[in-house]
Amino acid sequence: MEAAGDPPPAAAAAHPGAAEEPYGAAATAAPVPRRRLLALLGAKLCTWHILKTIILGQMLSLFICGTAVTSQYLAEKYQVNTPMFQSFINYSLLLLVYTPMLALRTGSDSLWQILKQRWWKYFFLGLADVEANYMIVKAYQYTTLTSVQLLDCFGIPVLMALSWFVLRARYRLIHFLAVAVCLLGVGTMVGADILAGRPDSEGSDVVIGDVLVLLGASLYAISNVSEEYIVKNLSRVEFLGMVGLFGTIISGLQLAIVEHREIMRIQWNWKIALLFTAFALCMFGLYSFMPVVIKVTSATSVNLGILTADLYSLFFGLFLFYYKFSGLYILSFIIIMVGFTLYCSTPTRTAEPTALPQPGSTGLDNAALKLEENDSEAPAVTVQFTRGETVVVSTD
Fold it and tell me: Rg of the Cα trace of the chain?
C-alpha cells in the first residue's frame, strides 16, 4: 500500500530521477542570475581602459596636490603669495621646451604657419588659461575654502555643456548619474572639513570671492574643451607650445602690473627656492601630462578624476599643517572614485553632422535629368533583317 506522500508510479516514471533531486536544488539555482549580473558588472567596470584612466587621473591629482601643498607652505611659512609669478615660471618652462619644437617644424605645422593662421585663437586660449589660474588663487583672499571647493565644481556642468555644443559629445543617463555621485563626494568632503574643524579664513568679501571662483571655473572649462579639441585634432606639442608662448607674454605683463612689489619683498633662501622649484616642476608635469590623459579619455573625465586632489592635499596637510582627520574623508574619496568609474564605464558618443538637404533643381537641368531617366527606362528596340526582306521588330 502506497503512502499518502509518495508520488504515483506514473509520475515517478514520467520524471525519473525526480525523487533523487535534493530539496535545496531550487535554492541553489536562485542566485544564478545574481551571479551573472555581478559577473557582467565586473566585466564592464574591471577593464584595462578604466584601470588606466583611473591611474592617469590620480597622477594628475598628485601633480595638483604638489602645487597646492607648495603654495600653501610658501604662504603660511614664509608669507609668500605670488600666484602670477608661479604661473609665469610654468609658462616659461613650456615656452622653453615645446615652442622650439614647433619652430623646428616645416610645412603647414610650422610655428610661422600656425601663428599666421590662428594666432588670435591661441591668444584668447592663453588669456583664458592665465586668468583662470589667477582668479581661483585670488578668490582665497576674499571667500572661504569651503566656498572655493563647492563653487569650483561649477566648471563641470559648464564643461559638459561646451563639450555638447563644441565637441558634439552626447551623454547617456549614466554619465549624469556619475557626475551627481562625484559632486556628492565633494559635498561629503566639505562636510568633513566642517566637522573636523579645518582652518578656514572668513574672507574679506565673500561675494567677490564667489564670483571669482565661478569665473575661474568657467574659464578652466573653456581652456579644457579647447585643449581636448586641439589635442585630438591637431597635436599635443602645438597646444603646449602655443599656450607656453602666449601664456608667458600675458602672465609676464600681468606680473609686472600686479605682483612686482610682492616679488621685491621675498627674502630669498634655499628653502624658498626649493619650494618654487617643486611648484614649477609639479605644474609643468601637470600641463605636459594632461593632454596625454585627455587624448585617451576626455576633458570631462579628467575634471572628475582630479576632484580627489583636495583629498590628497588634506592627507599631506595632516603631517605638514596638523589638520584633524575624519573618516568622512575616506568616504568622500570612495564616493568620488565610484562616480568617476561609473562615468568611464560607458563612453560618450559623438553626434554625426547633419547633412544639408539638397535643393530641388528646376529648369533645363531638371528637364534634362528627367529625359535621361525616361531614356534609361524606355524599352530596348531590336531590328533584325531576314533573307526574305522581312523586318522583325522586337522590344525587350
Answer: 33
Between 6 and 38, where is the model more confident? 38
Check: CB of residue 344 under 8 Å from CB of residue 53: yes
Choose among 177, 193, 206, 200: nearest CA to 338: 177
Alpha-carbon distance of 247 to 287, in angstroms, equals 12
Report d(CA 247, CA 123) in Å as an integer: 8
Q: Which residues does 363 contact at the CB level (< 8 Å), separation at least 6?
A: none
Average pLDDT over residues 334-361: 74
C-alpha cell at 378: 524606355
**What is the percent of the chain where pLDDT is above 70?**
74
Are 66 and 282 in contact by the 8 Å Cβ rule? The answer is: yes
Euclidean distance between CA atoms 95 and 88, whole angstroms: 10
Cα angle value 38/44/50 (rounded, 5°): 130
Q: Checking phi first, is residue 377 left (phi over 0); if not, alpha (psi -120 to 50) or beta?
A: alpha
Greatest distance between any 2 Cα atoms in the chain: 121
- The per-residue pLDDT for range 150-181, each reduced to its tens digit, is 888 888 999 999 999 998 888 999 999 999 99
C-alpha 294/C-alpha 126 separation (Å) is: 18
pLDDT tens for 54-79 read 888 899 999 999 998 898 888 888 88
**Beta strands 381-385 and 391-395: pairing type?**
antiparallel
Residues 34, 35, 37, CA angle at the centre, nearest 5°? Answer: 65
